[in-house]
Amino acid sequence: MTSKKVYLETFGCQMNELDSELVSGQLQGLGYEIVERDTAADIVLYNTCSVREQAENKAWSRIGLISQRKRDGEDIMLGVLGCMAERDGTDLLRRHPEVDLLCGPGELDRLPMLIDNLDRAKASEHARQTAMDDRVALSGNRSRRWSVLSAAENNLELLDLARAFDPDPTAKFAGRSAYVRITRGCNKFCTYCVVPHTRGAEVHRPPNDIIDECRQLASKGVIEITLLGQTVNHYRYTHGTTLSVSGLEIPQVGPGLKAFQFPDKNTSSVGNTTSFADLLAGIHEAVPEIKRLRFVTSYPRDFGDDILDVIAEHPRICPYLHVPAQSGSNRILKLMNRGYTVEQDLEFIDRAVARIPDISIAGDIIVGFPTETEEDFEDTVALLRRVPFKNNFIFKYSERPGTVCKDRFEDDVPLEVKKRRNNLLLAVQSEVSAEVHRKWVGREVDVLVEQVSKRQQKASERSMAGLANGVALTTEGHALPSAPDDSRVKQLSGRTAGDLIVFFDSSDQSSPAEDLIGTIQRVRIDDSSPLNLSGRLCHT
Ligand code: 5AD
Ligand code: SF4
């Protein structure tokens, strides 16, 4: 056992957040203490993301600061985990000699061993001679070779499963919300994206492991689970083909994009397979304590009616889709290798809205993809106006090393143009979001309470300081409910099943407002803005 202190910082996506949670749990289980500040740590770990340049730059600047402290004589072990480690490989160690260890996203189960190797080498005063193999765990091309893939995946599977027995009680919303991975990696090879290169081949976890993990999390008090995969609707597990020596099912490599051609739009199970729809229904049935089951990210192609039916027919599966369109121009979609047209995307969205009228739709858009013209951009604007997106994450294209784009296309849209298109899209999205939110005014919704609203706390601090009404306004100019004088009443915020943000005041009759965090409350919506809804608690 060790008493070393570890600082772990995460960059990028939800998949990384989950990986960091697993790494923390694993290290804590071995006696390491996780600390809040890098200044208090013996070991500093950065779980990095290389999907976009911005997240990467942030990580580089953090690595630079710790490297400087090491050069100034501080005794810190510095580790780079995640996609930047996998992509740059040992080259990163050569360019940044202060980095002690590298661990790719597919090798995180080996992290404690790497730390241990370095510690032991240091104890025997061989720190600088520590063999590369002892401080580097990367998948490299190995992840695409089937023979070694299954063994590695099996170890990773254990890492996922181990977490379920001890979820972090200090995690989001009083430990009530958790991520569960269903698929690792990606086989789609969009031309701009590093994920297939850093996270490797698409691998599906056995459904029974997923259900067990959900059950374990529920037994620890989790009521909201978000299933994670790069393209969740392509989840598919064929039983009876991959059995480990112990006879248990193990993770399984998924088919490529071409395997998904369903003219009848029905992705349901055939014979001995578990489809994504089966998996959703299976979790819903097996774990009734999970009050909200959602999933990200969906691929706009191959989203079968069977999945929509399961969402519509199961009350605890959230009517929410995160389904990135990326562009509204067919020419750009083709260059992106997305494998669908705008018309196919719209056909899916229309089908989803017809089957589930209250469905919330979010997405991602890239502006300034190589060769994007004003006309292509206008097509994207038209797509945003056509689809009732509750929000879109809008990204300026950035060239990523190792991608097809970097090899084949010039990053030829000037930064100024990217910025202008980005701002224009944000303005359009704001109008669309306002419209989507307005439709909820006058209705009652169930809200999973997340926190005491920071905005309202600030407003009440301002008014307590005697300043002119520090009240937040909606776009229509209505005031959000202001913090009342009664200090027992606080403004809380949370989310609907469709992931819309809601503000409301706690009741003065109830116990402390904080007690509501992590519970589901019925709220009547009185007002809306492009960003959120506001209302009041319904008393039953
Ligand atoms: N440049 C800009 N945005 C990107 N994304 C992925 N790769 C890039 C890139 N090279 C965006 C996509 C994806 C989201 C996670 O990040 O929109 O859906
Ligand atoms: Fe990247 Fe495309 Fe896979 Fe999404 S589907 S992770 S954008 S390659």
Polypeptide structure, described:
This protein has 540 residues and is α/β, with parallel strands linked by helices. The protein folds into four domains: 5-138, 3-Layer(aba) Sandwich (Rossmann fold); 143-318, Transcription Regulator spoIIAA, CATH 3.30.750.210; 323-438, Transcription Regulator spoIIAA; 444-537, no CATH class. Helices cover 36% and strands 19% of the residues. The protein contains 18 helices and 22 strands. Strands 2-1-3-4-5-6 form a six-stranded parallel β-sheet, with helices on both faces. Strand 16 (360-367), helix 15 (374-386) and strand 17 (389-396) form a beta-alpha-beta unit. Helix 7 packs parallel to helix 10 (207-219), helix 10 (207-219) runs parallel beside helix 11 and helix 11 (276-286) runs parallel beside helix 12 (305-313). It is globular, with a radius of gyration of 24 Å. The relative contact order is 0.07. The model is unreliable at 143-148 and 464-479 (pLDDT under 50). 5'-deoxyadenosine is lined by residues 51-52, 192-193, 324, 326, 364, 366, 395, 397-398, 400. Iron/sulfur cluster binds at residues 186, 188-190, 193, 195-196, 230-231.
